[in-house]
Specification:
With 447 residues, the chain is an alpha+beta fold. It has a domain of 111 residues: Elongation Factor Tu (Ef-tu), domain 3 (Beta Barrel), CATH 2.40.30. Helix content is 24%, strand content 39%. Strand 10 and strand 11 form a beta hairpin.
Length: 447
């Protein structure tokens, strides 16, 4: 029997899309719409407080972070300020007030000057130097011993002149003479007590021979002045050894050839002069000035030679130095005051031209320049006058001040003509608070 194919198809009971019925939604009525809006408003109203509370909580949680960031920012600003302040420096270039003067003038200077007069002092130094030489010749020599003594005046306050070849007698009766005249000062009052006047001098034995040689440690008494014997002064004038008396000899002795000896003494004296001048500049007061050619040498003397054995002889030379020194500030002000009528009295430096001549002469021809009471100081040439100022005070006055106040501050420094200031970092508007951070540079304008 034939199979019914159509019946073999299984029918699915699920509805197809075509079979789904569509439910129609009704549009809400006007009253329902209003009710829905009211409900939405209520829900929104309830949600707002919660939102505000959430924002407060967020702010509360973020508050510590804001404080930290604020502190960090302030710290950075403070650090930058501190660093710039620490490294802040300033350079101030100062142009001092200057003037140009020319002179061909002579000024009178005095040892005991009154106010308004030019004052000077004398610096005296002495030096002895020795040198060893080979004694290659022999000679029958007769040499007089020599040395130094100190002569005392315990007689009166008046000075006493002793002429050349004045005789001094030792306790043993040996006679010695002085090679030049000397002046022995009188008695002085020191601390309410009388102190004998004294002066140092060379002496030479009256005759050659070793018996005149004498050591300081061997002297048992004082020298007396033979010419005063029997008079009032005899017991009040006396002398004592300053150095050994040596070099006296008689007979066949070793000696240095004359030409070599003469050259050696010249070299030794030149060395003494050089050393004395160096010493004078080294020890003079810092506030004083020793002008070129304002010094003299005296008391050149060949001291006794010493035989050292092994054909060695030591020669000795002595000299004295006398330097005329002025207080530099007093000298500069005195000269400028005489050359510039409108000089304001501010301390100045006087820079002499290289070709400016300076000379000193004693107003008394009877005495060496260093022994008189007044001198004539002659200046011929030109000089730059440079006003001075207190550099430390300038640094202190500028410290911590605004740059805009620079001219006002400088106006109180009469020795300054102009200034230029540079502060670093460049954005700083004031000088460093520490004076040592302010560098002062001098710029001299030579006219």
């Amino acid at each position: 029997m034939a199979k019914n194919i159509i019946q073999d198809v299984v029918v699915n009971n699920r509805r197809s899309i075509r079979q789904v019925s569509i439910e129609r939604r009704r549009r809400p009525t006007q009253s329902k719409a209003r009710k829905m809006e009211a409900n939405e408003f209520e829900e929104k109203k309830k949600a707002e407080p919660a939102s505000q509370e959430t924002q407060k909580e967020i702010k509360k949680r973020n508050a510590p972070k804001m404080i930290i960031w604020t502190i960090a920012l302030l710290s950075i600003i403070f650090l930058l300020f501190s660093v710039t302040s620490f490294f802040s420096t300033a350079t101030v270039t100062v142009i001092p007030k200057t003037a140009r003067i020319a002179f061909n003038d002579t000024y009178i200077a005095k040892k005991n000057a009154l106010p308004g007069e030019l004052r000077y002092e004398v610096m005296t130094l002495q030096k002895k130097m020795s040198k060893q030489l080979e004694a290659t010749e022999t000679e029958n020599l007769k040499i007089k011993a020599s040395g130094k003594i100190v002569v005392y005046n315990n007689f009166s306050e008046a000075t006493q002149r002793l002429i050349i070849n004045t005789r001094f007698e030792s306790e043993e009766g040996l006679i010695y003479k002085i090679p030049k005249s000397i002046i022995v000062p009188g008695i002085k009052l020191v601390g309410g007590k009388k102190v004998p006047g004294s002066v140092e001098t060379l002496i030479f034995a009256d005759e050659p021979g070793e018996k005149y040689n004498m050591k300081v440690s061997d002297l048992k008494g004082d020298f007396k002045i033979a010419g005063f014997r029997g008079g009032k002064k005899y017991n009040f004038f006396y002398a004592r050894l300053k150095t050994d008396i040596a070099g006296g000899s008689s007979g066949l002795v070793k000696k240095v050839p004359a030409k070599i000896l003469d050259e050696a003494r010249k070299e030794l004296r030149a060395d003494i002069k050089s050393e004395l001048l160096k010493e004078a500049y080294a020890i003079k007061p810092q506030s004083s000035v020793l002008l070129a050619d304002a010094y003299y040498y005296s008391d050149y003397a060949s001291l006794p030679d010493k035989f050292l054995g092994a054909d060695k002889i030591e020669i000795n030379e002595n000299a004295a130095f006398h330097g005329i020194i002025f207080d530099e500030a007093e000298l500069n002000s005195y000269v400028v005051k005489n050359k510039l009528p409108d000089y304001d009295g501010v301390p100045v430096n006087l820079v002499l031209d290289d070709n400016t001549g300076v000379s000193l002469s004693d107003n008394s021809s009877a005495k060496p320049p260093w022994e008189g009471d007044s001198l004539s100081l002659s200046l011929k040439g030109g000089a730059d006058v440079i006003w001075t100022y207190d550099e430390a005070l300038l640094q202190k006055s500028l410290a911590g001040q605004r740059k805009s106040d620079l001219n006002r501050i400088i106006s109180s420094f009469l020795g300054i003509a102009e200034v230029r200031a540079q502060v670093r970092p460049y954005w700083k508007r004031s000088f460093p608070s520490k004076p040592e951070k302010i560098k002062i540079e001098n710029f001299s304008v030579k006219k």
